């Protein structure tokens, strides 16, 4: 099956180069050479690994398709319904990728840059598909969406998200900002500041964040990266550092409950309380603001 992402790669590179030129002409200096090369390496690795991973995902979707409840066909309204169903699924997958450490171990890659530009959009996981993230979408072929349609819509969702990784665009018309994910909304998502942590998980439609209480508007330009940055440009370290940390934590866990929480609890959870989760960081920041 043709992968829309592969066809879009030349356009990605042209837009990236355009933003780089804009960055230098306006003295914004959005790019740093080593950081950009790391992001490109992560993107190339993601494409190569998914040559196998996507095939396995598609085979799994076909398995569920065999037991489908309905056969919805491919009329225009089915594509429109799938657009919302896919994006709804992406919202919850993305949200849980911030709330469950097993999923975060793959997703942390995308947040590991302290820069925010179009190359950051290409900083993708090497382990997301292989660790089973695609299973979140398995309900779609089960209810009657054809597997090829599901995979196509997943690519469309990712293609949309490329352009929102930029500081070159400030705010868009109010109606657009209310309905759709935009650079302003997604800058919030990439912030390491407590107020912005684990917010704005949207793919295409920001309405999910508004509905489920995870929306925060951008009121200042964020500080990007992780709450504890890994400070490396090594692609292998970027790809696997959190998996290594999980293994060390599980090995040192004093009991089975702690081992389970180190794997499936929120990122930042620790048995001795020496680290803080996003929720704890937000609560601590709120207490500081109230005490001022």
TrEMBL record:
Membrane-spanning intervals of the chain: 39-64, 76-93, 134-153
Domain of life: Bacteria
Keyword Cytoplasm belongs to the record: no
Alphabetical GO biological process terms: lipid biosynthetic process; membrane lipid metabolic process
InterPro entries listed in its UniProt record: Fatty_acid_hydroxylase, Sterol_desaturase/TMEM195
One Pfam family, short name: FA_hydroxylase
Topology in membrane: Multi-pass membrane protein
Molecular-function annotations in GO: glyceryl-ether monooxygenase activity; iron ion binding
Primary location group: membrane
Protein's UniProt keywords contain Membrane: yes
Residue span(s) of domain Fatty acid hydroxylase: 79-214
Locations listed in the record: Endomembrane system
Record PANTHER family: ALKYLGLYCEROL MONOOXYGENASE (PTHR21624:SF1), STEROL DESATURASE-RELATED PROTEIN (PTHR21624)
The name this protein goes by in its record: Fatty acid hydroxylase domain-containing protein
């Amino acid at each position: 099956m043709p992968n829309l992402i592969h066809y879009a790669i030349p356009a990605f590179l042209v837009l990236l180069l355009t933003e780089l030129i804009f960055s230098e002409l306006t003295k914004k200096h959005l790019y740093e050479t080593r950081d950009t090369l790391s992001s490109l390496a992560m993107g190339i690795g993601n494409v190569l690994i998914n040559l196998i991973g996507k095939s396995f995902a598609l085979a799994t979707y076909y398995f569920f398709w065999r037991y489908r409840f309905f056969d919805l066909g491919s009329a225009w309204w089915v594509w429109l319904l799938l657009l919302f169903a896919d994006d709804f699924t992406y919202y919850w997958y993305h949200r849980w990728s911030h709330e469950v450490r097993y999923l975060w171990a793959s997703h942390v890659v995308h947040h590991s840059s302290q820069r925010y530009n179009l190359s950051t959009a290409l900083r993708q996981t090497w382990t997301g598909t292989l660790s089973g993230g695609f299973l979140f979408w398995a309900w779609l072929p089960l209810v009657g969406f054809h597997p090829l349609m599901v995979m196509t819509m997943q690519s469309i969702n990712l293609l949309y998200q490329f352009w929102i990784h930029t500081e070159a665009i400030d705010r868009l018309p109010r109606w657009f900002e209310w309905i759709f994910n935009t650079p302003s909304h997604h800058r919030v998502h990439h912030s390491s500041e407590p107020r912005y942590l684990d917010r704005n998980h949207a793919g295409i439609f920001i309405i999910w964040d508004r509905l489920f209480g995870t929306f925060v508007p951008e009121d200042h330009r964020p500080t990007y990266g992780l709450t504890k940055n890994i400070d490396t440009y090594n692609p292998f370290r970027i790809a696997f550092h959190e998996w290594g940390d999980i293994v060390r934590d599980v090995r040192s866990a004093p009991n089975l409950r702690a081992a389970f929480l180190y794997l499936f609890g929120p990122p930042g959870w620790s048995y001795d309380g020496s680290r803080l989760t996003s929720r704890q960081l937000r609560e601590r920041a709120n207490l500081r603001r109230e005490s001022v």
